[in-house]
Amino acid sequence: MLVERLLPKARDRMVCIDVSATLLQAARVLDGACDLVLVCEADGRLAGVVTKTDVVRQTGRCVGANCTAPVANAMTRDVTSARAEHWLHDAWTAMKTRGFKNLPVVDASGLPIGVLNARDALQLLLQEVRQEEELLRDYVMNIGYR
């Protein structure tokens, strides 16, 4: 199963801000249910990601009006991402190994197209396993194979 199967949900989760935005703007975006903000260059390509943890860590270093620091100071630049044509299992493995709840999905040119959530990926993978299990059971029981 490919990541593209979850693209509709991944698109709904995608929130982007410009690399020139301030840390305060990122914090406002992260205030709601959003866990991850994609930071994009002027041409739209993914430059990094910012999480609530990143904002808290950087805010703890702020002195006075320094909290208007650029989001680039807090973002993670070395981003692990997936592409729509990648296997969902591989994306899940990367998320599990690195402890990520979310993973950006980008196209071939590096433009973000969504944010894959671990819960959605796991639910779809479990559904696939259940379907394979049912097919195997039906095969062994000789159901539907005449």
Overall spatial form: elongated
What percent of the residues sit in helical stretches (DSSP H or I)? 25-40%
Which range does the strand content fall in?
A: 15-25%
Radius of gyration: 19 Å
Distance between the termini: 28 Å
- Secondary structure category: alpha/beta
Summarize the helices and strands and which ones pair or pack:
Elements: H1 7-13, E1 16-18, H2 23-30, E2 36-40, E3 46-51, H3 52-59, E4 82-83, H4 88-98, E5 102-106, E6 112-117, H5 118-140
Parallel strand pairs: 1-2, 4-5
Antiparallel strand pairs: 2-3, 5-6
Helix pairs in contact: 2-3, 4-5
Which properties best describe this structure?
single chain, 146 residues, alpha/beta, three-stranded mixed sheet, 5 helices, elongated
What does this structure look like?
There is one protein chain. The protein is of the alpha/beta class. It has helices at residues 7-13, 23-30, 52-59, 88-98, 118-140; strands at residues 16-18, 36-40, 46-51, 82-83, 102-106, 112-117. Helix 2 (23-30) crosses helix 3 (52-59). The two termini are 28 Å apart.
Short account of what is shown:
It contains 5 helices and 6 strands. The protein is an alpha/beta fold and 146 residues long.
